[in-house]
């Protein structure tokens, strides 16, 4: 495994996430083929539903499965459809000018999202490793951490230290597609 992939894997969550505490929606995407929606980020996990090719989903979380592949926790845009895990090679992201990031850390790792860019400010929200957010702004005082103002799809906006985020290049998530 290459250094870049190891770094990426280190920044992403290594397991699954409790579904009840994920944001409402995150990054729009489309399924590239008929896809099994699974209960866990594994090919051996139970299939909850089979989604058709072209189905629109929202990607809520990213993890690396036991197979070493990226898996996305998705919420299909069809009302009444369960959310679950789909392997990343079955997902195509819609073009976006937004800047995205994932909350860094090991499985189950929670971080505080604060009301202003300092450790003494009020905690507004607890984010989980792998959660997808949009990056709205940044702030840095000399000799201190850079802070990023992030926005969750549930419209919670707050500040997080740079070491607690994995920020992706403009319009990309994990890797930019080959053009």
Written overview of the protein:
The protein has 179 residues and is mainly beta. The chain folds into two domains: 3-93, SH3 type barrels; 100-167, SH3 type barrels (Roll), CATH 2.30.30. It is 5% helix and 42% strand. It has one helix spanning 3-11; strands at 27-31, 35-38, 47-51, 56-64, 70-76, 84-87, 91-93, 100-103, 110-114, 123-128, 132-140, 146-151, 157-161, 165-167. A five-stranded antiparallel beta sheet has the order 6-5-4-1-7, with no helix packed on it. The chain has a five-stranded antiparallel beta sheet with strand order 13-12-11-8-14, with no helix packed on it. Strand 4 and strand 5 form a beta hairpin. It is elongated and about 50 Å long. It starts with a helix and ends in a 12-residue tail after the last strand. 37% of the residues are buried.
Q: Short summary of the structure?
A:
The protein is 5% helix and 42% strand. The protein is mainly β and 179 residues long.
H and E order = HEEEEEEEEEEEEEE
Q: Quick one: overall form? A: elongated
* Tally of individual helices: 1
How far from one another are the termini? Answer: 23 Å
CATH superfamily label of the largest domain: SH3 Domains
Please give the share of residues in helix: under 10%
Q: Report the β-strand fraction as a percent range.
A: 35-45%
CATH top level of the largest domain?
Mainly Beta
Which residue ranges are poorly predicted, with pLDDT under 50 across at least 5 consecutive positions?
1-25
Give the CATH topology of the largest domain.
SH3 type barrels
Strand count, sense and barrel status of the largest sheet are: 5 strands, antiparallel
Number of strands: 14
Average of the residue pLDDT scores: 80
What is the level-2 CATH architecture name of the largest domain? Answer: Roll
Evaluate the radius of gyration.
Answer: 16 Å
Which strand order does the major sheet show? Answer: 6-5-4-1-7
How many separate domains? Answer: 2
Q: Report the structural category.
A: mainly beta
């Amino acid at each position: 495994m290459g250094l870049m992939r190891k770094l990426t894997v280190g920044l992403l969550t290594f397991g699954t996430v409790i579904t009840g505490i994920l944001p409402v929606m995150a990054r729009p995407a489309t399924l590239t083929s008929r896809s099994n929606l699974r209960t866990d980020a594994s090919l051996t996990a139970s299939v909850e539903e089979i989604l058709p090719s072209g189905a629109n989903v929202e990607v809520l979380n990213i993890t690396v499965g036991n197979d070493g592949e990226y898996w996305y926790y998705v919420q299909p845009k069809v009302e009444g459809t369960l959310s679950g895990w789909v392997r990343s090679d079955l997902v195509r992201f819609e073009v976006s000018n937004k800047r995205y990031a994932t909350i860094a850390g090991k499985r189950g790792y929670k971080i505080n999202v604060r009301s202003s860019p300092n450790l003494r400010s009020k905690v507004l929200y607890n984010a989980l490793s792998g959660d997808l957010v949009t990056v709205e702004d940044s702030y840095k005082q000399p000799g201190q951490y850079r802070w990023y103002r992030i926005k969750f799809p549930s419209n919670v906006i707050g500040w997080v230290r740079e070491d607690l985020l994995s920020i992706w290049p403009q319009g990309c998530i994990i890797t930019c597609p080959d053009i």
